[in-house]
Amino acid sequence: MKEQSEINLVAKKISDVSRLVGNVPKEGYNSHFKFSYQAWDDVLPAVRNACVEVGLIIVPNIVSVERDGGTTTVNTLFQLIDTDSGQVLEQHFAGEAKGTDDKAIQKAMTSSTKYAYLKMFQIPVAGDVDPDGEAPKAEAGPVKTPSPVTQDAAPQINWVERGIAAFGGDKDAWDAWTQSATKDKVAWGVILKKVWATSGDRTTQVELEAALEEERHTKNNGKAKAPSQEALVG
């Protein structure tokens, strides 16, 4: 463990560097996400020049490299060395980069070093997230799949049978009527009233016409004469 006096010597140099660097303007710009940031090319010379002036050397050492999916993480040990006394203070920082190719380690190392400098020398970063300023997010629970609504199956209504019933069970009369009344709105109104009266269900012309269209594919043309309007109203 370092003696307190030894740590104080390095801490004094860190304080001096922080004072000399001050603010680093955001000269970098991300055109894709539309935001400005402090570029590495601006942070590095500001910190390096201040370190040279006060006599502080920063030596980065890669401790480990982790690859997870498409991300590379570099864990780095930074040694801050006081050139006057040779005393050392060590700090750990990690950096991430997208990708796992041969350049991913260098990118992650640059990220680690940049943010180590920003944090160690307390360089202001506008837009940094303050954890105390964020409302806690509720942990997402298991996604519940809504149970399908169970309903009794609607009864299948045979409108053709009901139409025949409206003619007193005379299928020939029904067939003849459907051939003559398909385009006749007045006749449709009459037969619908007959169907309603015999079945108790107020079906619509659309439903009845659909049933008739299906019926036509399986039956012969009507042979009986269409009943008169008076007979339908009966």
Structure notes:
The protein is α+β, with helices and mostly antiparallel strands. The protein folds into 2 domains: 4-125, 2-Layer Sandwich (Enolase-like, domain 1), CATH 3.30.390; 159-233, no CATH class. Helices cover 43% and strands 18% of the residues. It is built from 8 helices and 5 strands; from the N terminus they run H-E-E-H-E-E-E-H-H-H-H-H-H. It has helices spanning 4-21, 40-54, 104-120, 159-166, 171-181, 185-199, 205-216, 229-233; strands at 28-30, 35-37, 56-68, 71-82, 88-98. The strands form 2 sheets. Strands 3-4-5 form a 3-stranded antiparallel sheet. Strands 1-2 form a two-stranded antiparallel sheet. A hairpin with a 4-residue loop joins strand 1 (28-30) and strand 2 (35-37). It is rod-shaped and about 115 Å long. The protein starts with a helix and ends with a helix. The model is unreliable at 222-234 (pLDDT under 50).
Task: Furnish the topology, listing elements before pairings.
Layout (H helix, E strand, L loop, with lengths): L3 H18 L6 E3 L4 E3 L2 H15 L1 E13 L2 E12 L5 E11 L5 H17 L38 H8 L4 H11 L3 H15 L5 H12 L12 H5 L1
Antiparallel strand pairs: 1-2, 3-4, 4-5
Helix pairs in contact: 1-2, 2-3, 4-5, 4-6
Question: What is shown here, in short?
Answer:
The chain is α+β, with helices and mostly antiparallel strands. The protein has eight helices and five strands, in the order αββαβββαααααα. It has two domains: 4-125, Enolase-like, domain 1, CATH 3.30.390; 159-233, no CATH class.
